[in-house]
Design a protein that fits this description.
Length: 83
């Protein structure tokens, strides 16, 4: 349940940067215990729409992916500001 709540919070943070219908779909997936699919879809859409992530957003994605035992290729292609 903790992962689901954290994932829903993360997905909600992209409201306005991704289509509302996509946000609702990913939240629904997370609420129905499809967190892996929700995170994979979120990452794919973030990449497709060239959404630049804040460092803490990428860290949250990485942490959730690790807790779900997902490989780095789930998120490694995402963009974030260079230091």
């Amino acid at each position: 349940m903790e992962i689901e709540k954290r994932l829903i919070d993360l997905i909600s943070d992209f409201n306005g940067r991704l289509a509302g219908e996509d946000i609702r779909e990913y939240i629904s997936l997370a609420e129905h215990n499809e967190c892996v699919v929700a995170l994979e879809n979120l990452c794919t859409q973030l990449h497709e729409y060239d959404v630049v992530l804040a460092p803490e957003e990428l860290a949250n994605i990485q942490a959730l992916a690790n807790e779900m035992n997902l490989k780095a290729d789930t998120w490694a292609f995402l963009k974030y500001p260079k230091s």
